[in-house]
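Duplicate of #3305? Posting structure anyway:
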């Protein structure tokens, strides 16, 4: 099993490389800090969604086969949770998937130089799809499907990103009005 410590070490290495690059290229401190915060955020998402990485059948195989690890029917998992699990589980799964990606929606327009809505929507869709496909790929590579690849996660993550973007947009409107006065 590959533990979270390796993910944290990788985050610090990427962060260090970014800081050195920013210093050499004399990037603005504001932009460098924003990108550093984004790197830390993405690293946390990776730790939550991928780790621990299981590579042994003996250790843990939750879903067993590819067929059991792949759920492509929209709202099937959410419907199941609403009918058969507790409110705490619903909040943890549904709320957690939304809350986890709100910062992406807030930070992405801050670090992108071109803030076109179509591009933001493309990133909002691509990010959760990449997470789910990488979970599936890791399961395939190691032969242990310990994470479920679920279209509901994509829907919930996309919703969180759009909510984050709406928060960013609302705060930027308020900021512009206050700045004008």
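Output from current build:
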């Amino acid at each position: 099993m590959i533990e979270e410590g390796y993910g944290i070490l990788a985050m610090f290495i990427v962060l260090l490389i970014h800081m050195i690059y920013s210093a050499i290229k004399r990037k603005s401190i504001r932009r460098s800090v924003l990108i550093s915060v984004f790197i830390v955020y993405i690293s946390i998402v990776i730790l939550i969604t991928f780790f621990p990485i299981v590579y042994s059948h003996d250790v843990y195989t939750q879903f067993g086969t590819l067929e059991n690890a792949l759920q492509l029917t929209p709202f099937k998992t959410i419907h199941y949770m609403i009918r058969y699990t507790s409110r705490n589980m619903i909040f943890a799964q549904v709320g957690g998937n939304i809350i986890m990606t709100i910062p992406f929606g807030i930070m992405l327009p801050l670090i992108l130089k071109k803030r076109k809505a179509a591009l933001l929507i493309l990133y909002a869709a691509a990010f959760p799809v990449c997470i789910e496909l990488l979970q599936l790929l890791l399961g395939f590579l190691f032969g242990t499907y310990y994470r479920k690849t679920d279209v509901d996660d994509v829907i919930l993550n996309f919703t969180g990103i759009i909510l984050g973007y709406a928060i960013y947009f609302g705060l930027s409107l308020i900021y512009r009005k206050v700045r004008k006065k």
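Confirmed duplicate; merging threads. DSSP finds seven helices and two strands in the chain. The helical segments are 4-25, 29-50, 66-69, 76-84, 87-111, 117-142, 151-180.
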